[in-house]
Batch of 2 targets.
Target 1
Amino acid sequence: MKAAVVVFPGSNCDRDLAVAFEQTGFDVSMVWHKDSALPEGIDIVGVPGGFSYGDYLRCGAIAAQSPICQSVVEHTKRGGYAIGICNGFQILTETGILPGALLRNAGLKYICRTVGLKVTTADSVFTQGYNAGDLIGVPIAHHDGNYYADAETVKALQDQDRVAFSYTDNPNGSVADIAGILSENRRVLGMMPHPERAADDGHGGTDGAAVFRALQGIAATA
Amino acid sequence: MKARVHVMLKNGVLDPQGEATRHALGNLGFDKVEGVRQGKVIDLQLAEGATEADVTEMCEKLLANTVIESYSFEIQ
């Protein structure tokens, strides 16, 4: 099983994400933003949190135009798996891989704390380790995590069971309490909370570990 | 040749920064401010031969996120 973690100038959760993949049994390649191709045989791409390009213009906007992101788009178009966390979620929306956008938090403050999430669907490779309705605690650390999509898009996400996680006590103004969403083929997950920061006993919580544990089966299905 | 691009959050998209500015203006006694929307101005210095269509493409591809933002520009 092979995973690639994309590294941009300003990424700061890239190593955390790599460790989470490694603990799951993946061989992890770190891929620099200027690279134009992913390594051969990658099963899943991780787009990490951080502040790529200093959040210039809009969070994730410049990263989304980098050479490697075009390869990530092609990987997902071929049906490849990808997970984007925090800034990675912002980047995936900016590339158009996932719908919607992340706005400034409604309360204008940067929020860094563990929040309650409800697992909204267990029907994806990322969430199959949970039961729908499970309540978990996972840290958030963002200034721009206020998920927005127009009413039609939100309805489509809900009707197609593509909301992966929702906030139990909405911290940032996200529409319909949405914390994470799936692509139409359910192989791409974008989420603002950081499961890779709740994946080891040393983190003070392991509620996010199941996201990675459940990925062990993807090599067979990719 | 220059182009000035204006990027604003779309109507209906909450602008918490604009809202905070409106509150601050109210606190200063400007009680006739009913709404504030904050946006960006991006000045482009363009080489000869650049067209309006080029600027439109720049806005669509990068300068604005049309999921949440609208844009307009003038060529100077």
Target 2
Amino acid sequence: MTTVNRILLASHGTEGALAAEQTAINLCNKGAHIHHLIVVPTFWQGMTGDDWLNNGSTRDTFRRYLETELGKEADEHFERVSQAATEHELTYTKALVVGEPDECLLAASKEQNFDLVVMGSPRPKGKPGLRSRMITDPLTKGLKTPLLVVPYPDE
Amino acid sequence: MVYTKKSPALFIIGLIMLAIWYMADSGMMAGYIEHLANGKKYKYGSELTSIPMYFGIVAAAIGAWQWFGSHKEGHWDYYSSTIAGGMFILLIAMLVRWFVAPEIEVVSTAMGEVGQTGSHIHKLLGLNYVVIGIVTGMVIVNVFSIPEWAQNGVRLSRLGLKTGVILLGTLYSAAELKNLGGLSIVMIGFFVLGSVGMVLWIGGKRKIPNSMGGVLSAGMGVCGVSATVAAAPVVQAKSVEIAYTIGTILIWGVGCMFVFPIIGQLLGMSYVQFGAWAGTGILNSAQVAGAALAFQPDGIETLKVAEIFNITRVLVLPIIVLWLAVWYVKREESATQVNVGQVIFAKFPVFVLGFILMFALSSTGIFAPAEHYKGKYFGNTAESGFKDDKLLKDADVATLRSEFGKIERTDRKDALQRLVENRKIMSPDDDDVLRGLVNSKALSKDANKILKGAHKAVRHTAKKIKAFRNWITWLFAFGLVGLGMQITIGSMKQAGGQPAVIGGIVGFVKAALSLVVVMMLISEKI
């Protein structure tokens, strides 16, 4: 298998993303670098929807709670990949951003010189999870770095 | 941080409003307005020649200052940053109410009636300014996204709706509030507890996590997204569970807003029946108001009933949140104990106090005579609005005298005698008795016409109440267009998983069962 030195890994804890994390770790040479990107999709900003009955304080409590939850989930994913990277003697950096997943990945790919971008494949129908696609036409057309989409793991 | 944007947007909005006013006031729009009137009287003529002028001047003046002035951090800066978004919503509401909805009515009328329904498609689908306004809001946020300069102001829509509910307090009579309140407590009590229990029961059978069952039951049982927002932190819902629940509720809510008025029209439901059904069967509180105004766009009787149900729901919310908190603590070791007082205090809907205050003020006679009913009151003196030219003429008296023999009941005979002697109705009781006489159809058409005229002459609509009704209509239109701008396809797309299945079952059962109960138990009048 070909190995690389600088990988941009986009993952957020789904089964597909876990497969991508594993593949990214395995592809790296000793001492290589993984930059881990987690995107919080913008649809979360609309999650108070059309609520109008609650007081401002209840909405603030909800927003803070949601932020904490999303932050905790991201921290778990960072921690897992960071540990795996350390075990494989790789260097590791991370970034948590809010935005459209494809746009954020595209922007992150331009910030540093990466050899490869790695991500999981879209969730198959019937699998639980959020609906937020990262692989889009603008991404594949705009990406200047080779992209590896890791197949969804078999049952 | 400075929130006010140096943007020409608000100034341009002001100019557009002023242009609308100028074209309407100068007659430049006469041909177009005639087209929109579609052979009838155009309903919004007086609004078109006043509202856009007032708001246009305000928007243009503040817009010029926002565009060219300098802005500093502070409270005023924050409040100022909301004006552009608020005016943006208002402009959309104006365009939809005055032009888009009437245009759709013209096209729909031209297409003819739908099958044997006797209705045109716009009426059948409830395509009026309220529904079109919400849909326009949704299109704006999902297709174009809310411009940055408008984002702070879009949140004002909640204030608009709450103010609308507060003002609505002026329009209830004590008897009406008592009867509707009693009905809503029974209906909401049964269906809230029933659907919360049903979600928890089905959730238990399908082995969903307690946190998911907790947040879903609040959303499905009480008041949709609002209940989900209130309950999620208490039952420690996971992010994906919140997304599933809110997505499911939003899709149901938007769907119900379109489907309920169609069913209501097809079944020929009364305002009270439809208001009670929408207030119970629609999951999401915003869509309850939307459906009520969609069912009856040119009046607020349905909205009045539906909002009593909404208020009852929101009063039940702190209790359900507490119940779920206790339920969750018993089942999860990691759960934190809740402070009962804090939950009640934080979740108590303060605007309901405003509603009660306005109702109390209205009952004192500050806006209309204390004995008013739905803003109308009895008055047969010049001071109370009676005009002498409305006194019965000799010919009217002769017609009524000639029909005395047809009346059997003494109270009706006496009331008619007093009317003939004084040439006007002398008391609210006489008015009621004579209306009964008209409804009995015992007299000739001519005599009934005279009695109806005598009734109208002593029934007056309080000016302040009339103004409140207009304000309420606008506040709800404003609020609902703004709320439409906060319903994103991205969040609706998250509907899925177990919440979609359980929510679908419970939502359907609740809507169907409440329809049956309403049709069986609620008569035309409460």
